[in-house]
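Sequence in, structure out. Go.
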Amino acid sequence: MVICLQFFLQDTKSSNGTFVNNQRLSKSSEESPPREVCSGDIVQFGVDVMELNKKCKCVSVQGNVLVSSVEKITDLLWF
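Output:
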C-alpha cells in the first residue's frame, strides 16, 4: 500500500495576509487557492502592524511533517 499525504493552506480573505516561504497567497481580502505546504516551509500569518502605538507582531512558524508509522497514517484517513 502506498499512501501519499499532502497538506494545504488557504487564506480565506484575511486583511493582513497568509504567506508561505515569504510569498503571499492572495491579495488583501481575497480568497487564495489552496497551497501545498511541505516539511521545512515557513508559514506566516499576518504582518507586523502598529495599532494604538503598540506593535502587533505576526506569527511565523517553520515545521516538519512527520509520520512515525503507517498505522498512524491510516488513523488519519476516513473510509
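Check: The longest helix spans residues 70-76. The mean pLDDT is 80.
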